[in-house]
Amino acid sequence: MTPIEASTRPRVAGDREQEILEAALEVLADVGYDRLTMDAVATRAKASKATLYRRWNSKVALVIDALLSQKEAPPVPDTGSLRGDLLEAFCGLGGLVEHKTVATLSSVLTAIDRDPEFAAEFRTRVVGPKIATSLAIYERALARGEVRADLDPSLFGPALAGILLHRSFMLGEPPTRELIARVIDQIILPAARP
């Protein structure tokens, strides 16, 4: 959906929109994306399906808006060091130490693989801002001389998240501030330094 289409869709009045988005997140957490239906969200929100469809023309649009409603994008950290910026990005507001962040990702993983429309919207609207933050962090580190000049931020940037999510989903070890600091200190910084 284009930004123009999103901005011209009718709004649900007052706080009602947020209540519906919260209901969508609850249903998403309970059953995952694949089994989430507009009917289930309408029931949970005590709304009619017509109310939902007046605002969201599809499950994809509703779920993406619900995911984005959880929080505003935090500013790009600027602590003066790559280590500090990475810790702030991953341990601060919306970071991987928040159980809700990892649980939400878990509930949409199969949809990313199975639903091309959802995957495209998720990558653009949810993951896109996180990628932009990562690129900004590594570009500043490059400007400060903290990382190798040949480092490719678009390739290197997702490494920390990849390690943490692997440990969480595959090994059952949820991200903590201590684990994030260990991965940064033992893997990310040594690999990135000039």
UniProtKB/TrEMBL annotation:
Q: Which InterPro entries match?
A: DNA-bd_HTH_TetR-type_CS (IPR023772), Homeodomain-like_sf (IPR009057), HTH-type_TetR-like_transc_reg (IPR050109), HTH_TetR (IPR001647), Tet_transcr_reg_TetR-rel_C_sf (IPR036271), TetR_C (IPR011075)
Instruction: Tell me the keywords, alphabetical order.
Output: DNA-binding, Transcription, Transcription regulation
Give yes or no: UniProt keyword Calcium: no
Q: Where is the HTH tetR-type domain?
A: 14-74
Residue numbers of the DNA-binding region are: 37-56
Which superkingdom, per the lineage?
Answer: Bacteria
Please name the Gene3D superfamilies in this protein's record.
Homeodomain-like, Tetracycline Repressor, domain 2
Q: Which PANTHER family match?
A: HTH-TYPE TRANSCRIPTIONAL REGULATOR RUTR, TETR-FAMILY TRANSCRIPTIONAL REGULATOR
What is this protein identified as? TetR/AcrR family transcriptional regulator
Q: Which organism is it from?
A: Nocardioides taihuensis
